[in-house]
Amino acid sequence: MSDIFKRHIAKFAEVNDKEFSKILTFFQVQKVKKKENLLVEGHICTTNYFVLKGCLRKFFVNTKGVEQTTEFAIENWWITDLVAYEHKLPSEFYIQAVENAEVLSIENSTEATLLSEFPVMERYFRFIYQRAYAASQMRMKYLYDLSKEEFYHHLNDHYPEFVQRIPQYLIASYLGFTPEYLSEIRAKRRS
Amino acid sequence: MSDIFKRHIAKFAEVNDKEFSKILTFFQVQKVKKKENLLVEGHICTTNYFVLKGCLRKFFVNTKGVEQTTEFAIENWWITDLVAYEHKLPSEFYIQAVENAEVLSIENSTEATLLSEFPVMERYFRFIYQRAYAASQMRMKYLYDLSKEEFYHHLNDHYPEFVQRIPQYLIASYLGFTPEYLSEIRAKRRS
């Protein structure tokens, strides 16, 4: 199962089998049940997660008491509350399994040791964060430029498997509208 | 003037004077006049900018023909269209000087050489992108959670010098409302 992580590292950095075996010892493999929380609002966030299998989401509970999803992570994605993780602060978010999942987890302090012993992993994480930031720059543009309905169609056109895979009420929560409104949009497009 | 860059690197990575002198040779110092464009929509984006002095902004022209600002960069900030920069693609954005500015610029291909000759810079850029992505995660939360008016007050409370420094019509463009509406909000708060 850790092969998926090995292949992911190999996309960005050169790590041989022996090094990879050592790198892997810095991580824990964790199974998470659907709806189980890996992070709860108000708790100190010390862990970063790499999804081996399944799907996680990050959300916060807004002032109206509604869960607002801000991020999904499927296979090969990292997910944490990055501000809280770097500074070991209480988080404003939840991280929860959307499907039964298997993740690699690493603690903040362990990551520091990993990076000092395997500087090649600086390159790996540089790429991870560079691409994540690049994606968020584009998402910001869509948030300004597209209506919610257009953003849904954009997702559907560019990431059809993702939209199929995620329960519709969570897609609605990510887009910031009600499940009923999402049904309407979908019906409109089909007709 | 390059001292500001040296101090910025020192925050995240260990680089001695001799190394820094060599690292600096990978960059160009560039003076930019207020309103001058460093990047134009449709042009291939090959350059990444570090602001030594002054202020830049990134914007796109939306479907209504209105400039929508998505990002500012003041001293110690990097700015580019990261998707286009990594893949050498035509950009969907403009990067323009808000004030007369001085920047360090590096070309994509030069950055690759820099990173292979000075792997310590992988650590530096890992931190840059990690923090930028962390900030964008929080911004995403505010975009979902706060009204435009609340977001303005949040900016004003947390970054008063920034709000003072940037022309009001650009703050309005960043927040996605008209300068007139911003004046109303400001008047309301004063009263």
From TrEMBL, chains A, B:
User: Organism source for this protein?
Assistant: Chryseosolibacter indicus
Which InterPro entries does this UniProt record tie to the protein?
cNMP-bd_dom, cNMP-bd_dom_sf, RmlC-like_jellyroll
Q: What is this protein called?
A: Crp/Fnr family transcriptional regulator
